[in-house]
Amino acid sequence: MARVKIDNYAYANVPRLGLTGWLRWIWRQVTSMRVALILLLLLALASIPGSVLPQWPQDAANTQGFIDENPFWGPLLDRLGFLDVFGSAWFTAIYLLLFASLIGCIVPRCLVYWRELRAPIPAAPSRLDRYEPTTAELDVEAQAALASARRSLEGSGPQPWRWARGYRVRIDEREGREGAELALSAHQGHVRELGNLIFHVSLVAILICMATGAMLTYRGQALIVVGDTFTNAVVAYDSYESGALFSEGQLEPWTLTLDQFDAEFDLVGLPTEFTAHATLTEPGKEPREVESQVNRPIQVEGAKIYLQGNGYAPVFSITDSDGNVAFRDAVPFLPQDDVYTSTGVIKVPDVTSGEQLGFTATLLPTAVADGDSAQSLHPSPTNPVIYLRAYTGDLGLDDGVPQNVYELDESQLSPLRGDDGQPLVVEMELGDTIELPDGLGTVTWEELPRFAAFDLRRDPTLPWLLGSAIGALVGLSMSLFAPRRRIWLVAPVNPAEGQKTTVVTAAAWAPAHDAGVRDDLERVLAQTSGTSPAVAPTPEER
Question: Which of the 8 DSSP states describes residue 296?
Answer without folding.
Answer: B
